[in-house]
Amino acid sequence: MTKQQVALITGAGQGIGKSIAERLSHDGFAVALLGRHLDKVQAVAKEIKNNGGDSFAIKADVSKRDEVFNAVKETQDHFGDFNVLVNNAGVAPTDPIENVTPNELESTFQINVGGVIWGTQAAIKAFKLLNHGGKIINGSSQAGQEGNPNLTVYGATKFAIRGITQTTSKELAEDNITVNAYCPGIVKTPMMDDIAKNVAKNAGKSEEWGMQQFAKSISLGRLSNPSDVSNLVSFLASKDSNYITGQSILVDGGMVYR
Predict the structure, then answer these.
(1) What residues form the catalytic site here (predicted)?
(2) What is the DSSP letter of 132?
(3) Rounded Cα gap, residues 227 and 16, in angstroms
């Protein structure tokens, strides 16, 4: 009998992270759900359990290295193994370049970039203790493949995550650890709603106008659902992607072409 695989998903309380947790559970993974707000990840964990899955909620802030290491250890201790880390947690400030503040720059990098680095370090430690390889899957963005107005800080972090993905994939290949990233486009999530509102507010336009600034350039003509992204993460977490590493894969309905 094949041993159950274990995945930890950060930022799993809503949106893309919630969808990834649900999909990986459906795929047969035991899933640990990490979030800053325990009530949110507990609610998702309860839903997964009610649907027959094995889930575990953890409160942690990915910008804090010790908390991330503790979360990975908790996951390993709880399930007895650890195989996949999904570095999904992130924030998305929307400001014209003139309005960027030192605090916004620092806090966004601590969460978006720091969270990926601390998660990667913690996963490496766990994989080595368990004496097997694993998969690290990072959340980037189409905004990490092409610049978007008013997203200087957010885009900078997502470009950085692509670089980290490439670099660490080369470092970790000899340990049978693959590192890849998913790059969503415009996904219907609470965070995307906030981005659209802020873009519209900055331009003195309606919320619908804000959303259309993103949606109008999608070849497939629709915003994506979180499941469009979790479908890709499911592939990256599976054995079918074992020969893929260092890649940042667009799942944007045809916005950015490389």
Answers:
(1) 154
(2) S
(3) 8
Between helix 226-237 and helix 15-26 the angle, nearest 10°, is: 50
Q: Which residues pair with 87 in a beta bridge?
A: 138
pLDDT digits (tens, 9 = 90+) for 57-85: 999 999 999 999 999 999 999 999 999 99
* Sign of the CA dihedral with 55 first, then 56, 60, and 62 last: negative
- For the full predicted model, state whether its pTM sits above 0.70: yes
Tokens at residue 36, please? 């800053």
Closest alpha carbon to 228 in 190, 204, 254, 200: 254
Q: Is residue 66 part of a domain?
A: yes
Q: Is residue 125 situated within a structural domain?
A: yes
Number of separate domains in the chain = 1
Q: Phi/psi class of residue 234: alpha, beta or left (left: φ > 0; alpha: ψ in -120 to 50)? A: alpha
Tell me whether residue 184 is annotated as binding.
yes
Each residue of 168-217: pLDDT tens digit?
999 999 999 999 999 999 898 877 778 778 888 888 998 878 877 777 78
Q: What are φ and ψ of residue 27, in 5° steps?
A: -75, -5
Residue 145 CA to residue 197 CA, distance in Å, equals 23
The beta strands (E) that lie in 185-252 are given as 248-251
Is 216 labelled as part of a ligand binding site?
Answer: no
**Residue 93 marked as a ligand binder:** no
What residues are labeled active site? 154
The verdict on residue 209 lying in a domain is no
Which CATH number is 161's domain given?
3.40.50.720
Question: Which residue range is the domain that position 47 belongs to?
Answer: 6-185+226-251
Determine, yes or no, domain membership for 216: no
Does 15 count as an annotated binding residue? yes
